[in-house]
C-alpha cells in the first residue's frame, strides 16, 4: 500500500491480497495506523521488490477503505479491511485474484 501524494513519492508499507477486479483484502490497522496518513495507492504485479517499476506493475488509486465493523483498533482484534480500487485491475500472469473458498 502506498502512502503519499504520488506513486513516486509514496512510502510503500503493508500488503494485501487481490480478491476481485476492484477489491484488495488487507489488515485494518494498515488503513489507519501509520503517521503518514491513509494509503492512497495499491501496487500490483511486483515480482521482485528490488525492481519496483517493471513492465508488469500496476499502480491503482484507492477509491474507498472499509473496516470490518467489529475491528478493535486498541487491541487489533478483527483486524480486517477492504480496499475498493478506483478502476478495474487488468488481470495478467502477475496480477490475479486469490481463490477464496465460499
Automatic annotation (TrEMBL):
> In what residue span(s) does the Peptidase S1 domain sit?
1-102
| GO BP: any one term | proteolysis
Keywords, A to Z, come to: Disulfide bond, Glycoprotein, Signal
InterPro entries xref list: CLIP_Serine_Protease (IPR051333), Peptidase_S1_PA (IPR009003), Peptidase_S1_PA_chymotrypsin (IPR043504), Peptidase_S1A (IPR001314), Trypsin_dom (IPR001254), TRYPSIN_HIS (IPR018114)
Which Pfam families does the record associate with it? Answer: Trypsin
Q: Which GO terms describe its molecular function?
A: serine-type endopeptidase activity
> What's the superkingdom here?
Eukaryota
* Protein family according to the UniProt entry: Belongs to the peptidase S1 family. CLIP subfamily.
Q: What is this protein called?
A: Peptidase S1 domain-containing protein
This protein's species is Homalodisca liturata
* Source lineage: Eukaryota, Metazoa, Ecdysozoa, Arthropoda, Hexapoda
Amino acid at each position: 500500500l502506498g502512502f503519499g501524494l504520488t506513486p513516486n513519492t509514496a512510502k510503500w508499507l503493508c500488503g494485501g491480497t487481490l480478491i476481485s477486479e476492484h477489491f484488495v483484502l488487507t489488515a485494518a490497522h494498515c488503513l489507519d495506523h501509520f503517521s503518514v496518513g491513509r494509503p492512497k495507492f495499491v501496487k500490483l504485479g511486483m515480482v521482485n521488490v528490488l525492481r519496483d517499476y517493471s513492465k508488469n506493475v500496476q499502480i491503482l488509486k484507492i477509491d474507498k477503505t472499509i473496516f470490518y465493523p467489529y475491528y478493535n483498533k486498541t487491541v487489533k482484534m478483527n483486524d480486517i479491511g477492504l480496499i475498493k480500487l478506483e478502476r478495474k485491475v487488468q488481470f495478467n500472469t502477475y496480477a490475479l485474484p486469490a481463490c477464496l473458498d465460499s
